[in-house]
Amino acid sequence: xxxxxxxxxxxxxxxxxxxxxxxxxxxxxxxxxxxxxxxxxxxxxxxxxxxxxxxxxxxxxxxxxxxxxxxxxxxxxxxxxxxxxxxxxxxxxxxxxxxxxxxxxxxxxxxxxxxxxxxxxxxxxxxxxxxxxxxxxxxxxxxxxxxxxxxxxxxxxxxxxxxxxxxxxxxxxxxxxxxxxxxxxxxxxxxxxxxxxxxxxxxxxxxxxxxxxxxxxxxxxxxxxxxxxxxxxxxxxxxxxxxxxxxxxxxxxxxxxxxxxxxxxxxxxxxxxx
Length: 274
What we know:
Blueprint: E1 4-6, H1 9-13, H2 15-32, H3 40-50, H4 56-79, H5 86-109, H6 112-133, H7 150-170, H8 175-184, H9 190-213, E2 219-221, H10 222-246, H11 249-272
Parallel strand pairs: 1-2
């Protein structure tokens, strides 16, 4: 394997930091599994803050593991309710694979500060867009289009390439792009869009992780991945199952927006103190 294999990250990080991060990422997984988002918008800033010995190209592959756990859990829970369009999801994932390659090359090659600036800008754009649209009246009962036009298909594939790039670049699940895409382009109701987006992310996140694993000069901290990913997987399954029964979409979006702006502040702070 071309990457640098490291199984001693615990020594540099410390038990206290590891336990704190475990609690935080488990909480993120619990809530984000309800949004069709991988959680990388918070996983990355959390690790950047507490895993001070790691750089972005080491953090992003870990975030991809966590995002996969979140997306896979959301896919499972939503599919049990019939809220995943597997055919559309496979089409979007196929387009996203092209973007994944470009994203991995960007993060593993670009300057650390440049990657952080890009991530911070992404967070601010996403948070602002969702905050502006939070209280706009949009019906969750819009009918899904089972026969989208060719124009819609091309638009969907184009945006899915961007989704793949964001996943490969920043270790997110891509839901910040794919959920709005599925809602507005394919006219899916929110919960079905979330389930389908989760399915897309569950395919693209391991693909991006594999690309990092075989890229020269990238360190994969398998000890951290194997320790934290199962915790997130369990919490995400519990969270998505509970959320489908109890949690209103608007409440989850409000939590998400607050978390995104908090993460953006952390990333800006990291840039200023670097």
